Amino acid sequence: NEGLLAQDTEGDLGKVLRIDWDGGAEIVSLGHRNPQGLVIASDGTVWSTEHGPQGGDELNRIRAGGNYGWPLATYGTEYELYEWPLLETTGDHGPYEEPAFVWMPSLGLSNLIEPQGSEFPRWDADLLIASMSGRSLLRARRSGDRILYVEGIPVNRRIRDLEQLGDGRILLWNDQGDFTVVQEARLDEAGARIYSGCATCHEAASNEAVVAPTLRGAFHRAVGSVEGFPYSEGLRDIGGWWSEPRLDSFLLDPSAFAPGTSMVFEGLANPNDRRDLIEFLKGY
Q: Which residue of 13, 49, 53, 120 has the lowest C-beta tally within 10 Å?
């Protein structure tokens, strides 16, 4: 039966494998539908993300010899139906390994990592999971084998992959082919005071019209890249990324930096004010 290949120990489909340097391989676990990411945490625990059918994306704690049930167990359903026709039991995975966490509806999980180092001390021992259709970074708080909760961090991008850089920052690679850098917020008080004036337009309330694009994550973001915002042609055509020199030039005189910009702002003549605002935006 072609649909049961994930349960067939004679093949590799639907399996997590341990591969030796000499090219040999052995099955660690089976019964997987569509594994997307795999990480060995600092305590030796192996975690994997997996796509379900319609609903039922899973975070699994991989156990040697474990059978995760596909296609005989899932919390998802057949497309355009309200059930999965091959279920052996309903309401749980029966004799098969239960997922550590299930997403209903699916969020299109991709890779995952366990952040290390001192950049994110509050995320120690957490898992960071990339999401495509959910357009967010997911932070899973764990305690041993248990997942206590999952926090969604919106990034408004389909995250295809993620990695931690040597300096501790998290790099997110999205379907547009560019990157988002995640780092701990280090908000400068002087910069925050100046930004409070910017927030009048850039932080519109949910019931207000969008006046200006969000500046959250603007540093090292592509110029004119916030989806859905109608940028002026002058700013949209500049290309490249927001760097310190570019931000300084823009804040000094937006019209000179991007002729034809629709931004109504005379600029910051004081170089110290520009420096403080840029330092704020680096951590915002």
A: 13
Nearest to 38 by CA among 128, 99, 112, 102: 112
String of b and e for 191-211 (b: at least 16 CB within 10 Å)? Answer: bbebbeebeeebeeeeeeeee
Q: What letter represents residue 134's amino acid?
A: G
Cβ–Cβ under 8 Å, residues 110 and 49: yes
Sheet strands (E) in 144-280: 146-154, 159-164, 170-174, 179-182
Here the tokens at position 241 are 């990324």
Residue pair 41/62 in contact by the 8 Å Cβ criterion? no
Distance in angstroms (rounded) separating the CA atoms of residues 96 and 68: 5
pLDDT tens, 255-283? 888 887 877 778 889 888 888 888 888 87
CA–CA dist 117, 219 (Å, integer)? 22
pTM higher than the cut 0.85: no
CA–CA distances in Å: residue 233 to residues 98, 224, 263 = 52, 10, 12
Report pLDDT digits (tens) over 81-118. Answer: 889 999 988 889 999 999 999 999 999 999 999 999 88
Burial of 54 per CB tally in 10 Å (0-12, 13-18, 19+)? middle
Chain centroid offset of residue 5 CA: 31
The pair phi, psi for residue 155, each rounded to 5°, is: -130, -5
DSSP state of 233: H
Task: Show Cβ contacts of residue 246 under 8 Å, excluding neighbours closer than 6 positions.
Answer: 223, 240, 257
CA 231, distance to chain mean position in Å, is 25
